[in-house]
Write a structure and sequence with these properties.
With 222 residues, the chain is an alpha/beta fold. 32% of the residues lie in helices and 22% in strands. The protein has helices at residues 11-18, 26-30, 47-60, 75-81, 93-97, 124-131, 151-159, 208-221, and strands at residues 37-42, 65-69, 86-90, 106-109, 143-147, 165-170, 179-182, 185-191, 194-199. Strands 2-3-1-4-5-6-7-8-9 form a nine-stranded mixed sheet, covered by helices on one side.
Length: 222
């Protein structure tokens, strides 16, 4: 189990790979030791805000929920020491690179833009593929919440398949089975066959990017 800060090009990691020894992330290591539901959140920007907001919504609703991954105490520490029913996990691309069987019940991809390309041979496609590892083990019973306005995400979904149920969110268009802004309302429709409407003026976080973060978090709660 390696720290996400250690690149796969590191000599010791290369030696392990050469011997056929699996090198996994702490997320992959801890997951088999809990039956808790996990919500995995990744993206180039906004993932910390979305993770904190999602955790706040679920905890405020009275759920027994933990916060971990790339934020707070490690996921493994909490699985060992605490007994949460759900975990909200911020997941970096480096953590996702170290998963084999792990899958979140609900995955979020906030957005994708070129970042950390030195770890991906300066190939944007490899970085995008790394982000989408969050959904690679998901089944038809799981959910992928994503920014429908993001070009890189839209292109990947056009050319690749995921078994997860797709829950888009958008600032620019009305979407089915997802979240969108209509006039001055945030609306979430068709999730659990219930409609949620909230006036955007009541969202404390300002800016279009935070409106997207709020739609993603509210979609998880829904």
């Amino acid at each position: 189990m390696k720290s996400p800060g250690i690149p796969e090009k590191s000599p010791i990691v290369k030696k392990l790979f050469a011997k056929g020894i699996p090198v996994i992330s702490e997320i992959e290591f801890a997951a088999p030791f809990t039956n808790a539901i996990t919500i995995g959140i990744t993206g180039s920007n906004g993932k910390t805000t979305t993770t904190m907001l999602t955790y706040h919504l679920l905890k405020s609703a009275g759920l027994n929920v933990g916060l971990g991954g790339n934020i707070g105490k490690s996921f493994a520490w909490q699985v060992a020491e605490d007994k949460y029913d759900s975990y909200v996990l911020e997941l970096s691309s480096f953590q996702l690179d170290g998963i084999i069987n792990y899958k979140p019940h609900i995955a979020i991809i906030t957005n994708i833009s070129p970042d950390h390309l030195d770890r991906y041979d300066y190939q944007y496609e490899k970085y995008i593929a790394s982000k989408f590892r969050i959904t690679k083990n998901q089944t038809e019973e799981d959910f992928l919440i994503y920014d429908a306005d993001d070009e890189a995400i839209a292109e990947w979904l056009k050319n690749n398949k995921t078994k997860a149920q797709l829950i888009p969110f958008s600032l620019t268009k009305t979407v089915e089975n997802g979240a969108f802004i209509k006039e001055k309302n945030m609306e979430i429709n068709s999730i659990n066959e219930e409609e949620f409407i909230m006036e955007t003026e009541y969202i404390a976080l300002e800016g279009k990017h935070n409106m997207k973060n709020a739609m993603a978090a509210a979609s998880v709660a829904s």
